[in-house]
Amino acid sequence: MASSLTQPAFWVLTALANQRRHGYEIMRDATVASGGRVSLKVTTLYAVLERLEREGLVTADGEEIVSGRARRYYRITEEGSVRLADEVVALEQLIQVARARLATHRFAFIAQKVVPT
């Protein structure tokens, strides 16, 4: 399996998972979808997009001029969708481990409080 996605790459792929978007839409969607935990900077966004494009996970998908400015659109590739799905599975496995350990810890903590000494 490939190495874990960086947090910015994860959110860029997530933003593109359901539709093609241009840069500002990707940044806005990442912030909203992450509950405000992620705020991509322009330089970070385009560095991530370039890397993901080199890896075949996203592709440029047209350009248009809006208010005199060029908007370049991107879309996730099939390979990118598979990679994002793999990352989601890996994260879910980590969450299961953490939940199980917290549940055990919580049970042990409660048991200590209930058992008289």
Overview of the structural elements:
By secondary structure, the protein is of the alpha+beta class. The chain has one domain: Winged helix-like DNA-binding domain superfamily/Winged helix DNA-binding domain (Arc Repressor Mutant, subunit A, Orthogonal Bundle). It has helices at 7-16, 23-33, 42-54, 78-114; strands at residues 21-22, 58-66, 69-76. It has a three-stranded antiparallel beta sheet with strand order 1-3-2. A hairpin with a 2-residue loop joins strand 2 (58-66) and strand 3. Helix 1 crosses helix 2.
Keywords, separated by commas or semicolons:
61% helix; three-stranded antiparallel beta sheet; 4 helices; alpha+beta; Arc Repressor Mutant, subunit A; elongated; 117 residues; 3 strands
In short:
Residues 12-85 form the Transcription regulator PadR N-terminal domain. The chain has 117 residues and is α+β, with helices and mostly antiparallel strands.
Please describe the topology of this protein.
Elements (H helix, E strand, L loop, with lengths): L6 H10 L4 E2 H11 L8 H13 L3 E9 L2 E8 L1 H37 L3
Antiparallel strand pairs: 1-3, 2-3
Helix pairs in contact: 1-2
Distance between the termini: 50 Å
Q: For the record, what is the CATH homologous superfamily label?
A: Winged helix-like DNA-binding domain superfamily/Winged helix DNA-binding domain
The number of distinct helices, counting runs of at least 4 residues, comes to 4
The CATH architecture: Orthogonal Bundle
What spatial form do the alpha-carbon principal axes imply?
A: elongated
Radius of gyration: 20 Å
What is the beta-strand fraction?
15-25%
